[in-house]
Amino acid sequence: MILSKLMPIKYCLILILVIIMSGSISCLTISSLSLQGNLLISAEKIETVIFSAPGLELDLKTLTADVKRISKLYEQNGYPDVIINYPEIKTSVSTEVDIIISINENQRMSIDEIQLSGNSYLSSTSILETIETQGLSISKLSGLPAQIADHYGEQGFLFAEVKIDSIRQTDENEHIAYLNIIEHKPADFSEFVFRGNRVTRENTLLKLAYLDRAYDVTPKALKEAEENISKRPYIKSCRIIPLDHRKLLIEIEEDRMTILSGLLGINNAADKNDRITGFANVEFLNLFGSDRSLEVFWEKLPAQRELIDLNYHESGIARIPVQGDFSLSREEVDSTYVRTNFKTMLYYYNQKNNYGIYLSLDQFFPGTRRPKVVEKTGFTKLGVFWDFDSRDNIFNPTRGITSHLLLYNVLTETDGENLSKNAAEIDLQFLHKLSSRFIGEISSSMRIIENKDLTIFEYFYLGGSDNLRGFLENQFTGFRVGWLNLELRYLLSRYSRVFVFGDYGYVKNPEYTMGKLFSLGLGLRIRTKLGLLGIDYGLGYENGNFNDLQDGLIHFGIETKL
């Protein structure tokens, strides 16, 4: 260690002036003590070995001894050639002084070789291959223990400790850094501790986390397990903490598990009967703590269309990664027809992915209108699908990708005749964090069915709050439909945000093709005591012109938990 031999003259003059003004050094109080240049050892650790501190009287002997204590601390931690400058003493008021201790850690010194000790599970060669050792400086060396510990974590050693033991200089003027590794035992979790799950069963949490089927439990796997549990709408937060190599703590905070939601659409330019549209929804989540759910959905659509839908989610048997979604619905369109539908999706899930089969049975019956507008028609849809979701949460995601791919065959039965055709549905969404609060979101969707002897019931719909805002719900129909959504979001809280959006839509049917459907608008999602309030205003562009501002479509909805 090298200590400056002499106190700078200007500091001596300042100190003499302070002594003259105050009459005694014992009357001077330390107002503040700061450290500069200490990158290798934290200020908190240095402060534990020195005796001078703010609020105490200034003692030059103690201050000189503190410099030696800091030098010894650096030496014990294996950092040679560190220069501790004599403290600067500045007067703040007549009876107080500020002390600044500058440290020159000589970080330009290069480390020529790394020697590891204590590693038995992983070889030194395999460890050093994962890090950059060429031209290693002191500052980069300080980050090496964390890199090696992360490498151990990826191999399942979650409790590995790595410390810099010493740095030695050889006769050839080369510097060798010695690192000591305490590997501990690899993680092999066989005991789980649960906290906060008043309703949710323990085996349900293990199934959601996927930990009961994971071969290698790494920090990344634990982080993904936390996200998988937090994505459930009845979970507020989740923390997974290894207590030791066999015991794992899963701590959650549960939310309310009954959801009421609704949406109201008002369009002043529409006909009287179609001016108001919307829906009401009731969900019962996490039934019996098993992740099962039941949903009742009612919707009022344009042209006096009314829909009621019953949905059930079956979480399956513990330790078997198979789940199912079932739906039964009835739709009545004026007096033209009545539609009943049964749909099921059975799938195998693997953390972020769902792979499954899709089955849908549709029956259309003529309504009371005479003469009959439609004939009795049946559809059987059978296909396969793949879903992917890597969002960090479902309320206000800041990053991640979602995708949905469904390929299926449609067998149409009308008046005893059968006709088969193929169809596809594709959805993609990308979320990117632009800053701490600004989030960019882009999503695109496509619906396609073979255009051969189609009935009106096989067309896809476009328009409304789910795809093309600024237009009526299901305003357009076609056998080829697509839309693109862009949003710039500003996060207000975990659940709340404000955003601007731009939507584009395309629809093609045998009668027309519309490729210039746009809308611009803004929206708000805010958490209130009553529930999650949502308001969207969209201004549509159609036939070469934007609608008037007063004709823009407003979507208003609220979701509350009981």
Can you walk me through this structure?
It is a single chain. This protein is 14% helix and 50% strand. With 562 residues, it is mostly beta strands. It has a 16-stranded antiparallel beta barrel with strand order 14-15-16-17-18-19-20-21-22-23-24-27-28-29-30-32. Strands 1, 2, 3, 4 and 5 form a 5-stranded mixed β-sheet that branches. Strands 7-10-9 form a 3-stranded mixed β-sheet, with helices on one face. The chain is elongated and about 110 Å long. Mean pLDDT is 85; it is low at 1-14 and 16-25.
Q: State the helicity in percent bands.
A: 10-25%
The fourth-level CATH homologous superfamily of the largest domain is membrane protein fhac: a member of the omp85/tpsb transporter family
Mean pLDDT comes to 85
Order of the strands making up the biggest sheet = 14-15-16-17-18-19-20-21-22-23-24-27-28-29-30-32
Q: How many separate domains make up the residues? A: 4
Cα-to-Cα separation, first versus last residue: 67 Å
Q: What Rg do the Cα atoms give? A: 34 Å
What is the global morphology?
elongated
Structural class: mainly beta
Which CATH architecture of the largest domain is right?
Answer: Beta Barrel
Give the percentage of residues in beta strands. Answer: over 45%
Q: Would you count the extended β strands for me? A: 32
List keywords for this structure.
562 residues; mainly beta; Ubiquitin-like (UB roll); 4 domains; 16-stranded antiparallel barrel; five-stranded mixed β-sheet
